[in-house]
Amino acid sequence: MSLTKSERIKVASAARREQQKGDLQSTILEAATHLFEENGYENFSLRQVALAIGYTPTTIYLYFKDKDDLLLHVAYDGFRLFGESLENAYATKPEPSERLDAVGWAYFDFAMSHPIHYQLMFMQRAEFLACKPEGYESTMDNSFGILERIVQEGIDSGLITPGDVRTYSALIWASVHGVVSLALTGNLLTYEEAKGLFALQQEAVHRAFFEHSK
Fold first, then answer.
1. Residue among 39, 7, 120 at smallest CA distance from 72
2. CATH of residue 22
3. Tens digits of per-residue pLDDT, 98-133?
4. CA 148 to CA 47: how far, in whole Å?
5. 119 to each of 12, 114, 128, 134, 137, how far by Cα in Å?
6. Are 130 and 143 members of one domain?
7. Which domain holds residue 20?
């Protein structure tokens, strides 16, 4: 049955309100991400976000429960970008050893170019790893899954000694995260020093998992 003119207007109005709601939520998240990267975790506030978009703080609460909820969404935007970066790096190489190297450097590049995001995701609010905001399909599990996929391919092709894929993957991830965390903590390393140390880490991982196949 076709809708009356009045019903069509109501449907169109409802759709427009939903569109505006989505647009404002995206605007809030974009402003929050920018302010977070600019001011860091300790100095981030909902009031700053409200001022940046020209709304009252009350408006923010219509879309996000509190500061933590907004930061969780900021973190998961980071996880999405992070996962896309690793997946793209994976697709550039055909062999497991090359893929491991490419994904490792994609990890390093993301951390160095998004240091505030990385610290929120993995260092300051690590409990966010166990959360998942509504509407987000890409999670930390997807990123770790890329590494597990590479390890499994290495085992299947005889390049890596058979073993527990998850344990192998966790060991590789821990070593990568260790170097990156050191580079991002207290300006202990220059970028070039961090890059050199990461190159050594990559060589060590390659020797540990692929050397025996030569």
1. 120
2. 1.10.10.60
3. 999 999 999 999 999 988 888 888 887 777 766 766
4. 41
5. 43, 9, 12, 22, 21
6. yes
7. 1-64
